[in-house]
Amino acid sequence: MKKMKKLVVVMLVLSLIVAMVGCSSAPSNGEQGEAGSVEQEKYVIRAGIGLNDQHPQYKGLEIFKEYIERESDGRVEVQLFHSSQLGDDIQMMEALQLGSQEVTCPSSAPITSIDKRFMIFDLPFLFPTEEVASDFVDGPLGQELLDGLEEHGLVGLAYWENGYRHLTNNVREVKTPEDMKGLKIRTMENQVHLDFFRALGANPTPMPFGELFTAMQQGVVDGQENPVPTIYLQNYPEVQKYTTLTGHVYSPFVLLMSKVFWDGLPADLQEIVQEAAFIARDEERRISREYTEELADGLREAGMTVTELTPEQQQMFQEATSSTVEKFKNEIGADYVEQVLAEIERLSNR
Ligand code: TK8
């Protein structure tokens, strides 16, 4: 793993040098070339994600790429990298801040290391439906969070959808919090997740996504939690026996661009990139919801026991994690959390 990281760093540095050399020899944007022709600068967007190329997120990136390359008449090239080829979520966000990578699309959870207000998304049982969740993120409070990223060197282009997270493990069928006792669960690198898995009596271990499959295979952890498309498409049925549809957290993805890169883009290309982010978002959400519906059966067909909770059991999970909500309300800012809850309430009653 260490070697891999070194390699990634070396590759990033090399590509930075190549990019710099490329920039200095190219005529600056729109300038008259020597032959008197107007040459335009070319831009390369490297977009990296942790998930594999079967996931709706990658399909979304393909749409993002197609739109940008077509609308920019080839002035922008978009290169896609899946399966943590460019690093994990936190490493890629850092690369964006440095300007050595242009785009990534993490779950909101690791962004809390940059701005803890993103912790609101990690509060258990917050959004009643996917529609309320996407209305919320697309609304003024969601936008405010994206705007706040600028001072951290990131441009939040749009929210895509990861979806409701569910528990898998290979020890026993989980129906109540009681069944969680002692299970070693990989969580995202996020304080709220750690806290509520502890509240449930589990033994949570934060870990980058790219290390998860092997950790389950080798028994380093008993289980993990992710939305249905991820569980299915990352082949977790090969290493996990039980899925419980807990739906404990709704995860948005946040499509991020390096601010250094964004600031260097001419306005017409910025507009194309922003438009592409929205068009791809709508399609990514549609595919994600379609897969979520279809693939629960896929998990059964792949040999997993898939357990749906009764409303009473769901309630037990909610009660067992309510201490986390109380605790992090203060950590995030009580007034802000109240404002968020009121907005979700309003959207739910529409
Ligand atoms: C992919 C991650 C992943 C997330 C996780 O890079 O870490 O479990 O759900 O999808 O962002």
TrEMBL record:
It is found in: Cell envelope. Gene3D superfamilies: Bacterial extracellular solute-binding protein, family 7. It comes from the Bacteria. GO terms for cellular component: outer membrane-bounded periplasmic space. InterPro entries: DctP_fam (IPR018389), TRAP_DctP (IPR004682), TRAP_DctP_sf (IPR038404). SUPFAM superfamilies: Periplasmic binding protein-like II. Residues 1-26 form the signal peptide. GO terms for biological process: transmembrane transport. Keywords: Signal, Transport. The keyword Nucleotidyltransferase does not apply. It holds the Pfam family DctP. Belongs to the bacterial solute-binding protein 7 family. PANTHER family: PTHR33376, SIALIC ACID-BINDING PERIPLASMIC PROTEIN SIAP. This is ABC transporter substrate-binding protein.
